[in-house]
Amino acid sequence: MFRIALAVAVLLGLVVTPQAAAASLVEVTNFGPNPSNLRLHVYKPDRVAARPGILLAVHYCTGSGPDFHNGAEFGRLADRYGFVIVYPSVTRADKCFDVSSPQALRRDGGSDPVGMMSMVRWALGTYGGDPARVYVTGVSSGAMTTNVMVANYPDVFQAGAAFAGVPDGCFATDNGSTWNTECANGRVLKSPREWGDIARSAFPGYNGKRPRMQLWHGTADDVLRYPNLGEEVDQWTNVHRLPTTPTSTDHPQANWTRRRYGDKVESISMQNVGHNLMTSGMALRAIQFFGLDRR
Length: 295
Fold this sequence. Notes:
Rossmann fold, globular, hydrolase, PHB depolymerase family esterase, signal, Esterase_phb
């Protein structure tokens, strides 16, 4: 946990960007079922689009929703494009989201995902949001949560963007711990079908549309190691019934390799980049992947 905190502190030092002066975060209480006592902050720009999109933005271990808002560029992008951002905050001591317990890894099972879904539903109702434009993103613990949320609620989210995460179910434990060393070290390796079955088991019987996925990872990540990117790709290509061979490969920046799998899954591998991978411009690429750059 200390290594993640240190990594995040460095990240914040690199990318803190002032937000617009007029609009500000507002804390909301009594937003619905919230079994793990999450806090909610909402960012509503001054100029909200008609039937705005809703972005669930999930922080890293040791952080908070306000920390994530202040340290990333999503707020400025919301000012530009008129979507609403929902920021959950963990209140347990380690400030990590639950991606390990059996309750968290199934639809409406309890723990953090239930509270976050209450937040999304509250935002949709309060701001007249478009239920066809709901998305989720996060860094580190928030990236792991992104994978969990799209597995638990594929009928809610249109897409997810996970920055340095692990596959849904990879962090599962049966001893009450929220940390899974084998997964963090990239040693939980499964077939695409096995990973796909884990994601599908979160919502048994669901046969509808599945969220598109954008997956980011640095090759030098020493907190959640790089093999996890390949396992995420295996999971979501299988969920979408796609082969694991990319349909295209390009290099959007000098040290990036982007692989696309049809129009449903894309991975961005960042050469010699560690866990502190989210730098200027990456949030915009996620927003563009979602389609939130259109009002």
